[in-house]
Amino acid sequence: MKYVYSFKEGNKNMKEILGGKGANLAEMTGLGLPVPQGFTISTEACTKYYEDHGTLEQDLVQEILEKLRELEDLTGKRLGDPSNPLLVSVRSGARVSMPGMMDTILNLGMNDEVCEAIAKMTNNARFAYDSYRRFIQMFSDVVVNLPKESFEGLFDRIKEEKGIIKDTDLSAEDLQEVIIRYKSEYQNLTKTVFPTDARVQLLEAIKAVFRSWNTARAKTYRRLNDIPEDWGTAVNVQSMVYGNIGDRSGTGVAFTRDPATGVKVLYGEYLMNAQGEDVVAGIRTPQPISTLQEVLPECYQEFLQICNILEEHYKDMQDMEFTIENGKLYMLQTRSGKRTAHAAIKIAVDMVHEGMISQEEALLRIDPKQLDQLLHPIFEDVSLKSATVIAHGLAASPGAATGKIYFSAEEVQRRYEMGEREFILVREETSPEDIEGMNLAEGILTVRGGMTSHAAVVARGMGKCCISGCNEIIVDVEHKRIMTMDGKVYYEGDYLSLNGSTGDVYGQKLATKDAEITGEFQEFMSWADRLRKLEVRTNADTFRDASMARKFGAEGIGLCRTEHMFFEKERIFNFRRMITAPTPEVRNDALNKILPYQRSDFEQLFLVMDNLPVIIRLLDPPLHEFLPHTDEELRELAPTLNLSYEELKNKVASLKEFNPMMGHRGCRLDVTYPEIARMQARAIIEAAINIEEKQIVVKPEIMIPLIGDMKELNYVKRVLVDEIEKVQRERNRKISYQIGTMIEIPRATIIADEIAKEAEFFSFGTNDLTQLTYGFSRDDAAKFLKDYYAKHIFVQDPFTSIDEEGVGRLIDLASKLARKTRSDIELGICGEHAGDPKSIYFCHRIGLNYVSCSPYRIPGARLAASQAVILAKEERYK
Amino acid sequence: MKYVYSFKEGNKNMKEILGGKGANLAEMTGLGLPVPQGFTISTEACTKYYEDHGTLEQDLVQEILEKLRELEDLTGKRLGDPSNPLLVSVRSGARVSMPGMMDTILNLGMNDEVCEAIAKMTNNARFAYDSYRRFIQMFSDVVVNLPKESFEGLFDRIKEEKGIIKDTDLSAEDLQEVIIRYKSEYQNLTKTVFPTDARVQLLEAIKAVFRSWNTARAKTYRRLNDIPEDWGTAVNVQSMVYGNIGDRSGTGVAFTRDPATGVKVLYGEYLMNAQGEDVVAGIRTPQPISTLQEVLPECYQEFLQICNILEEHYKDMQDMEFTIENGKLYMLQTRSGKRTAHAAIKIAVDMVHEGMISQEEALLRIDPKQLDQLLHPIFEDVSLKSATVIAHGLAASPGAATGKIYFSAEEVQRRYEMGEREFILVREETSPEDIEGMNLAEGILTVRGGMTSHAAVVARGMGKCCISGCNEIIVDVEHKRIMTMDGKVYYEGDYLSLNGSTGDVYGQKLATKDAEITGEFQEFMSWADRLRKLEVRTNADTFRDASMARKFGAEGIGLCRTEHMFFEKERIFNFRRMITAPTPEVRNDALNKILPYQRSDFEQLFLVMDNLPVIIRLLDPPLHEFLPHTDEELRELAPTLNLSYEELKNKVASLKEFNPMMGHRGCRLDVTYPEIARMQARAIIEAAINIEEKQIVVKPEIMIPLIGDMKELNYVKRVLVDEIEKVQRERNRKISYQIGTMIEIPRATIIADEIAKEAEFFSFGTNDLTQLTYGFSRDDAAKFLKDYYAKHIFVQDPFTSIDEEGVGRLIDLASKLARKTRSDIELGICGEHAGDPKSIYFCHRIGLNYVSCSPYRIPGARLAASQAVILAKEERYK
User: Fold this and answer.
1) Cα angle for residues A669, A673, A676 (degrees, 5° grid)
2) Chain B partners of A779 at a C-beta cutoff of 8 Å?
3) What is the structure's pLDDT at B282?
4) Inter-chain contact B657–A780, Cβ cutoff 8 Å?
5) Catalytic residue among B299, B342, B376, B454
6) Does the interface predicted TM-score (ipTM) exceed 0.90?
7) How close does chain A come to B781, measured CA to CA in Å?
8) In sequence order, which ranges of A609-739 are alpha helices (DSSP H)?
9) pLDDT-based confidence at B164, cuts 50/70/90?
10) Contact predicate A605/A540, CB 8 Å
11) Backbone φ and ψ of A344, nearest 5°
12) Taking CB atoms and an 8 Å limit, are B793 and A657 in contact across chains?
């Protein structure tokens, strides 16, 4: 088994083994581009490292040392040899990019002798010492896991002692002093001497990269991004080139197109006399790439040429890292660049028009999950008129956001758990530790860092509004938890609004409005629509949701949850009267009061969904959800219901269940209280008649939830049909309607052939079906699932993507059984899985008719449905 | 479609259509026995009646009237014709006997003219008027549903007015007065005249019988006895004969063998000058049948002959009703007699020895559910020594019972719901309304009624101890809720003990002991054991249960629930420490303290189950079940655990789950706390080694509960195997053991082929599997299942008999999948279904290896397993 590959041995198709970075370094080498040479230790070696309980086996060590020898021969330098020292970088590189997640070590191979030698050879002692101290610092942090703060503190103290503010003002002697103190601190903390043997340094660094695959934050990132735990990371060992060796040196990152807008223009930034980390970390604010033309015109021209070669070669927008060492350009990385959804669409459509890729390739280029970024609110014009911009930063990730400011990710998390919503996370700069807080915030505002800083990259990945480098803000987090902008003080919890597309910051709450699907987006979606077989419907309970869903392309309502219609004040009052009714008369009276509300709700839905199917589910949740539970609330409520406190308390107690998820709910309610089903059937059919009388085509479909037994279905269907016929007689009008069921009880999937005799459609309720098939309650599983992730038992949450092996098989079985009985039965899913691309591929594969998801997920579902067709053709599934 | 059959048209195989009574009346007619002629309206007519919304269709009415005409021609009498009146009885008769559940009307065809005619023809005015008043009373009660008390009150008032105590002392004139008052009461209550048209009477009566199929008490009886709702009842219309026409008339019931002991001797009782209802109602105490020899020797001889014919013909012990009218014997009914389990076994074994039936027929004769009657405790001899009999009644249903007395079924129910147990229900006499209370009581004691009274018949059916006709008691229920016996007063809640085999009543609590399997019972069971293929194991957690189970024939332990071992004081303390442990050290310390207990428990089980498999399930329930929940208990517990009240309260709160059934339990606990699995594995293997060292063969099988995913199983199995290997190394001894899983999560059934790669055995946990497959929680379902029964959606509780269509299909699928992977995999079930005969037939059919049930159900399971073999051969299943 081969574990180590020199750059010359690989190519871009070997990502699974070499990781993304390694494969692309090999590809660029193959293309003859200027790449500092090196080798890649494969992802399989990472897996082996974990199998070997965190050790590098002797054979593997040998292989690494052999490749090192090859590299030494190639470069004519030797690692650790003061006579002609080779220095290398050690970087992680997983199959897919995990920005900021994995650790990097630069300048490896340094020790006192090597440092002196380099100082002499480069005639730049300051550079040599700075490289050395950086190495000690990184090694201590990444390999030995010593507290960052110790070394940063030492560094700051020396700056203080010397009365210096900028790092670059430290002299070579100052840096020598830093090195001495660093080594002593290292010894102090570890009780061992800092390793001087370069091979020991190398092997330790490699192990550290492997270990970093399993840090908590890497795991979180993988879970958030559906990256399997067992992929592992590769390690790239590459000879060092230096952007910080003088004024004809520099380093930068660039995109072949604008990653925020997609416009075809070289886009990027660089810092002269700096190492790569300086750009990404956002400590100094970099220059736009175009200015390089003036500084180093030849380098710039060469770079432009390479950009074209790479985009042509990869047929995608590239995100590249480069370093200039004494006027010589080196490419350190290329990869398909992350981009905003807006840019992604524009680039894909442009590339089709440019003849670079096909429509189908374009469709596969976009992650369906990204699309909902394009649908998120922008500021209302009206609201903007009265607003003034109080600060301006870099437009790092587009979209509008409004929320309360907090100064740490932890605080955002804490508030979120307390039930608060709408946050703007304000930070000096973000770091990987902030990921979860960023995920919860509406928007992110940072003081430092450029367009490629951590905050900017991560926010774009999340489709989250972000303004970075807004250095007009002064954040005083540590002591007062306030920030000052333009002289005005903002406290924790104050509202701020961000426009991530312009970089404008507003000091108040602003109203937002929904986006529109136009231009390239519309064109792109039309390609998807032409291709897909799955219909896409929406889960919507209100006129507002339904209207929005139609704008986003919904082809009907796949799930209207009628219980959501009961929560308005007057309605909940009557609903509670219905629940607590001491006599059938009171119950019927309460239901009669609810009827007009329901009818008018349904009328609105039918109106919006002109000529499209509207699936209305009968009341589903347990009745206790409609009653308050605290003594205080009960005391207040009781008299309004004409009940004594004790009576109400008893009623609430009698409704209490041990396992409400498996209790008295769904069609079971209709068995006990057929009058509820009757009222709902009447409301639906009366609404349908009223709207049909306006010459609008209505297609009502009544869905009975939680069916597990044929006789249940027969009973409830009989109740519905009797009432529907009654209404039709009263109104002297026939309405065409369907009655179907939700398939969410495992038993229903087994007897689906029977059920299909009476049900005209099935909607798979994959949330409950997953709960029951796995036997775990979603509300409780979070507690133990974290152990499941930690122990690699689960790779991902089965409530996010359909568990194809278990739940999926039941759905497939039920579909086949149902079609045997009723070949034209309409089959769809309406659980949360319906918006998940992987699950949509599955639905396409087993031949369902539609998926139904929340409005914002509709364009993504339309895209995923078209991708399913392409993937099925190519017999490949993500 | 034919709905009405004359007795000559039917036979005993037509029970489904004619009901049991009708089919046997037809059979006896065919045998040439003296049966008053008549006709039967089929069970299909009953179904049709309900389909026609409670009406008799015109065609059906015509058919009934035609058959009536035939009957009139046959008897030479005409219904409603004063010149030669025919009177008929109208009785229900379902497929299986439902004693006391259905309603009967006698003397139908009576009106003023007919009554006068009969008075003249019989020259017995008193008889004529008495028959008439009985008819009005029954018709008003059964057909029109008027309150019984009104008529009983009128009757009592006349007796009072006349100064008469016994009904028989009322004169013809008194009875004429009764009739006048009855008719006026009828008119008063119904605002209509009592119907005089005999055909109207007949049709109304038939409808009433049909209606009575659906009374609440009939439904309850059916549910308790697994009788499908849709069978319906037939109606038998039969010409009347009179046991109350004078001193050479009488009526009685008899069994061809003793239904309590099974001894081959004619057994029964009769009343002279009485109608059948008088015997059953227990108002007068009847005479033993043997005395009839002296009263009417010819009748007696004829009856003996008929008894022999019937038993020979039916090849089973018969339960017969007869009436003697002026010295002429008529047979009114024959059927297979209900009997105690003891009698059933003896009769079956005797009949095999008598050459009347085969062993296989004998095995099919016994209801496996009955057997547990034979296993129930009898009084300890020691306890009996100090006890004195305070009263004596009829030994109506055998067995020993001890409990607190209550005087109404409702009170027993109420107390039961409050959590009380051990009741003796004491009643004047029981009626069908008391069924549920009787079911909850340990024993039943009645003041009036004979061996065939309602209490006696029902108690025998339930296998419940009963003493009837204990007229030494004076019950004062209405006012004081006390009873007096031998001058001593007993209050509600006082203890009484009953010996249902002797009729002895003891005025105290008595210790009981278990029964033994000997004699005919043992012989019978040996036939079953020779035949059956299914192994029968037991669910047992203690030495006591395991020992008892072996006595009852258990072939190993199919389920040892280790959590039951944690509830003893010292153990629960350490278990709570384990749960609330703030550090791993405390947790491990607590587990180490529990280890010796578990080990010694397992040692005892291995000892009892010498050379038999012992399946031990790892800890299964959610941890919160081990902690108290009230503030008071928490405050008390906290310091003992070295925790503050707040800490403990928080811990308890953090363990609270929305749906604990689907929460953090089963193998999920082992994923979070592998140390629990480790401790249990160690306890099992150390115990096994300790016992094996005593030259006893141990067969430990470790069962992992709640597996839903392969990786779960892999993880927990790895933990177990590592620890087991460690123990084996420590002890330097190899133990042969198996690791398997409980299949109780629907998903596990779908991936059973995968699971079988790692699991050496499966035990289907049908309780949880049923909950999840149906999606209802057993704890909550009771609330809505009553509506399901009422609305005919469910016929029976799916937790009693395996739902073959749903849950059963999953079990079958899983078995097939598992055997594909591992052909010799051991498959069994250990849910409560494992003791249910119908479910055992199913298990046999799909080829499981064993069933595992509670000790008392083992003999029944052994029998059912043998029946499964016979039924499979005959391709018939109950």
Assistant:
1) 90
2) 657-659
3) 62
4) yes
5) B454
6) no
7) 6
8) 631-640, 645-655, 667-672, 674-692, 710-731
9) confident
10) yes
11) -60, -45
12) no
